[in-house]
Design goal:
The protein is α/β, with parallel strands linked by helices and 290 residues long. It has twelve helices and nine strands. The strands form two sheets. It has a six-stranded parallel β-sheet with strand order 3-2-1-4-5-6, with helices on both faces. It binds nicotinamide-adenine-dinucleotide. Nicotinamide-adenine-dinucleotide binds next to helix 3, helix 5 and helix 10.
């Protein structure tokens, strides 16, 4: 396929490289980042989109996505697919899909989980919203960039799945960290805490696969000085998107709201920026109840 790839940052760089290595023709554009090996540089987003069967975007937020989409939709050939893999608000995803449809194109929102490691290794998971035929067109590309793609329904549903998943992740990580901090103060050994919880009803991905306590459980960012991993500020971004969506549809999400407030304080005034999101554990250790 001929692929336009816009946004060659920490994630997009690897994804574009993997597509080119698999034999696709990839034309890339980024305002700042260089093109990876095997990807031809274009002078603009519109140039990268010209003649492409699929245009992939991997951008920081919804406002930037809307601006880039307006430019590239006008340049894309009829029937082509606009595949956005960024994490953005549900409204932007649905707005871009409407614009694309009106121009005779198909749009998919396909945010990912798996981080830069998954992007590099081609093992991302894609959560996809949009028409079935566009999903089928993009399937071979998902197989190169990832290990799993789940079709979640119509436009915006990929983003909905992503923020709901990450709201659960933020809440369970926070709960796991505060439970470890409480266990410490109760004199419970961390290994014993892990051995019990990881095989009892308190288990979760946060405890079992990404344990926030160093030296306990599988290897995780906690064992590497809380170097991300998944940075606290990216968790905050996703939690904010979950609360923006909850407000838009009048959903009651008290735990999501409390967790968003905790990460906001952690990132903005407690030194959490640049640390893994599991560094909530040392943050709780430093605090007392009052
Ligand atoms: P990044 O900031 O490293 O990359 C974004 C790139 O977009 C940058 O290189 C920037 O120069 C480029 N860009 C900005 N505006 C542009 C424009 N108008 N035209 C062309 N290029 C433009 O971010 P990232 O870590 O690669 O993340 C990308 C997206 O993936 C985000 O939405 C993020 O939330 C999501 N995501 C990231 C991770 C992660 O671990 N990094 C994991 C899952 C999802």
């Amino acid at each position: 396929m001929q692929i336009g790839f816009i946004g060659l940052g920490n994630m997009g760089h690897h994804m574009a490289r993997n597509l080119a290595s698999a034999g696709h023709t990839v034309v890339g554009f980024d305002l700042h980042a260089p093109c990876p090996a095997g990807v031809t540089a274009a002078a603009s987003g519109a140039e990268a989109a010209q003649g492409a069967d699929v245009v992939i975007t991997m951008l920081p937020n919804g406002a930037i996505l809307r601006a880039v989409a307006a430019e590239v939709i006008a340049a894309m050939k009829p029937g082509a697919v606009l595949l956005d893999c960024s994490t953005v608000d549900v409204d932007s995803a649905r707005g871009v899909a409407e614009q694309a449809e009106a121009a005779g194109l198909a749009a998919l929102d396909a945010p990912v989980s798996g981080g830069t490691g998954g992007a590099d290794a081609g093992t991302l998971t894609f959560m996809v919203g949009g028409p079935q035929n566009a999903f089928a067109t993009a399937q071979p590309l998902f197989e190169i960039m990832g290990q799993k793609a789940v079709h979640c329904g119509g436009a915006g549903n990929g983003q909905a799945a992503k923020i709901c998943n990450n709201m659960i992740l933020g809440v369970t990580m926070t709960a796991t960290c505060e439970a470890f901090a409480l266990a410490d103060k109760l004199g419970l050994d961390r290994q014993a805490m892990f051995d019990v919880v990881s095989t009892s009803s308190g288990y979760s991905w946060s405890m079992n696969a990404y344990c926030p306590a160093p030296g306990v459980g599988p290897d995780s960012p906690a064992d590497n000085g809380y170097k991300p991993g998944f940075a606290a500020e990216l968790m905050l971004k996703d939690l904010r998107l979950s609360q923006q969506a909850a407000e838009a549809v009048d959903a009651d999400t008290p735990l999501g709201q409390a967790t968003t407030a905790l990460y906001e304080t952690f990132v903005e005034s407690e030194g959490g920026a640049g640390q893994d999101f599991s560094a909530m554990l040392p943050r709780f250790e430093r605090k007392s109840r009052g």
